[in-house]
Amino acid sequence: MDANYWQTGFGPTNVELHRLSAGLDLGDVAWVAEHGQQVGAEELPVERRVTHMIDVARALSYLAKDTEALDLLLNAERQAPALVRHSASVREMVKDMHRRSPVTGGSRSSELLAFAQRCRAVA
Description:
The chain is mainly α. It has a single domain, classed as Serine Threonine Protein Phosphatase 5, Tetratricopeptide repeat (Alpha Horseshoe), CATH 1.25.40. It contains 7 helices and no strands. The protein has helices at 12-25, 29-36, 46-62, 66-79, 81-85, 88-100, 107-118. The mean pLDDT is 89.
């Protein structure tokens, strides 16, 4: 059973988030992208939830599922703006997503550009 003793976020959900993070580090990107979105981490501290969202967004980004990755990152930014905007991994991910985005307009490109500027991923 999950609990948050002394702000540890200890429990099976946090163990699963660590398993997913390790899977990402080991290159099992498709597994993380598929399973990461199914984990309900609502009861964990916001920092832990947001870190998990960043991990899943990274997996989606590696698979060039940039729309889904951006949606997750924007949700994470709403919950913990500073944690997202000052993350080196987010900055690198957003640079790659920005390079892959279409050159011509569209609301998604504008949304990605605005987010990239907030993260200082682009000038």
